Amino acid sequence: MTNAQPGATLAATALPTTMPAVIFRGEGVLSLEERPVPAITAPDDIVIKVGAVGICGSDLHALHTPPTHPGLPGVIFGHEFCGEIVATGPEARGLAVGDRVAVDQNPPCGRCGPCRDGNGNFCEPLFDNPHLDIPWPNTPGFFWDGGMAEYVKVPSYFAYRVGADVPWEHLVLAEPLGCVLNGIGKAGVAVGDRAVVLGGGPMGLLTVIALKHFGVEQVILVEPAVKRAEVARQAGADLVINPAAAGVREEVLAATGGRGATVVVEAVGNQLDTAVGVAADRARIVVLGINNSYRANLSAMTVTIKELRILGSFLMRYTMRESLDLIQSGELPLERVVSHVLPLSEVHHGISLARAGEGLKIVFKP
Ligand SMILES: [Zn+2]
Ligand SMILES: [Zn+2]
């Protein structure tokens, strides 16, 4: 087993018949099993040799008991992946064996009403999930076989071709970064903004990195974990506030001349009240975090009299290309985001690292 190097190609005939794969068993259980290598069945299919696959917060939610994210027992886990095409169906247009691709695991169909309205992240077929009675993205890795394996099969429109010189462990950040770009794009950030990011996990850290890349002068991160705070400083955060040690609102006001943040990005899921507390008049608050059990306690009058703009942001909204361009530019310190690169055989170790909040992005190379 070798990891494909940039520019390397693999002949389709070289595919083995079985492969190690991480199977989601439900009840918080993942098991490493031998599975058949996927074969082309639909004319638009492609088979990818996985270059890297990341652990996402949603994965941890699915592994929670009881689960706080839905998933179908028996499927191959992992939805953030990239790799090299090793087989294509006859109708997989524009892609060929040997192409390196990043995968959008929730792509718009392009044909439904929301897609035609320009709202691909509300794509009807995407949310028409045959396994659930609520609308929910029918994502590989949760409802059909995902990327925690040596090979994975997806329809070709999931894949974006990329250049040869980006490490797999950076390319695997394409979708999380695309979600961040969707969020901060809604806020319309400018150089003079004073930004506060709540939460220094992978999404919060990618937000800090993107805001600094776009020239935002002051980016303040709120994060209690010492290691994550340190990484965020190295990645460009101007100030990191430990919420366990200080009053977040007071610290933000002190750091912003008493004016508060013009942009706040909530990347935790249960910090909307804090976001409102640190917001300046007319601030834009972007809510990226997901937590179904949290209820905010915010004062509607505060929203009115401060003229706050609270902007929810879900999935990517045509931001995959921009994300890939940024990643391929090599200008983002993405090596700060990826804390661990492990072989797939260490999946349980990787999951416990992610659960402990020890590292940042944990990536496997099958
Ligand atoms: Zn994810
Ligand atoms: Zn659609």
Automatic annotation (TrEMBL):
UniProt KW keywords: Metal-binding, Oxidoreductase, Zinc
Pfam families per record: ADH_N, ADH_zinc_N
Residue span(s) of domain Enoyl reductase (ER): 28-364
UniProt-listed SMART domains: PKS_ER
Record-linked InterPro entries: ADH-like_C, ADH-like_N, ADH_Zn_CS, ER, GroES-like_sf, NAD(P)-bd_dom_sf, Zn_alcohol_dh
Family annotation (PROSITE patterns): ADH_ZINC (PS00059)
Organism superkingdom: Bacteria
Cofactors required: Zn(2+)
Entry's family note: Belongs to the zinc-containing alcohol dehydrogenase family.
Protein name, per record: Alcohol dehydrogenase catalytic domain-containing protein
